[in-house]
Every structure is written in C-alpha cells, then in structure tokens.
Structure prediction request, 139 residues.
Amino acid sequence: MGEIRAAGFVIFRRLSNQIQYLLMQASYEPFHWTPPKGHVEEGEDNMETAKRETKEEAGIDFKDLKLTDFTKSLRYEVKGKPKVSVYFLAELVNPDTPVILSHEHKAFDWLQIDDACKSANFADMQELLKECQAYIDKV
Ligand code: AMP
Prediction:
C-alpha cells in the first residue's frame, strides 16, 4: 500500500568478445544512470510496463529482445515513500539495433560490467548488474 512501482529491462548485448549493458542517464536530478524503466500504470502488470517503458525510453521493441528468466526487484525510498523497481534481464538480439532516447534521458551508453557499475552509482543497482553478469556467464 502506498508503494510506488516501476518496471523495466536490464538489456544486454553481445559483441564479438564482450557483454555490454544499456544504461541511460536521467534528465532529472541526480542525473543517475539506470536501465530503461518506469511507473507501473493502473491495470498494467510489471512485464507490460517494462515493454512499454523500454519502447518509450529507448525505442526498443520487445520483439527485438530475448527474455531470460532472471528478474530482481530493487527497493528504495523516493521522497520518503517506498518504491520498488522490478527488472527483467533480456538480450538485445541484434546488437546494432539503434537506441532512440526520449526527453526523460539525456544520454545512453553501452557499458561492460565494470564501467556499468561505475556509472550506476547506487550499490543495489551495482549488485543487480553483477548478478546479471553472473547469470549470463553461467548459461
Ligand atoms: P528513479 O526511481 O530512478 O526514477 O529515481 C527516483 C529517485 O530515487 C531519484 O532521486 C534517485 O536518486 C533515487 N534512486 C534511484 N535509484 C535508486 C537506487 N537504486 N537506490 C536508491 N535510490 C535510488
């Protein structure tokens, strides 16, 4: 009750010898970097929100993604209210698919795990990205 909900995809792509993660820099303070995600609207489930927000914020269609079964939720407070952001891990099948930003972000980058953790400066997001990397390395 009273919890703010968001959902999105941790999107990765495979280049010849590396795995890269898509991070996007918010156009609002503190200008932090996260995967594409946004508010769960009334009547939507988390997956529907993740698909809609990823299209809106990154221009990427769900049909261009291959979903894994890794998912994790981050819980933090925004202006004193609890928020949960649910992430699903998915691969961008064609690594050359363009990213198209909306006004909600000022930049994006494809980053290997170490650089992704440097950009995503919240500890729980860094942990999530490392767990994604471990999952990808395992399968
Ligand atoms: P967001 O949920 O990304 O829209 O961010 C809303 C607010 O929550 C911003 O002020 C961020 O600084 C903060 N925030 C975003 N992600 C995290 C996180 N993983 N841990 C703690 N605070 C966060």
Summary: The CA atoms of residues 101 and 138 lie 31 Å apart.
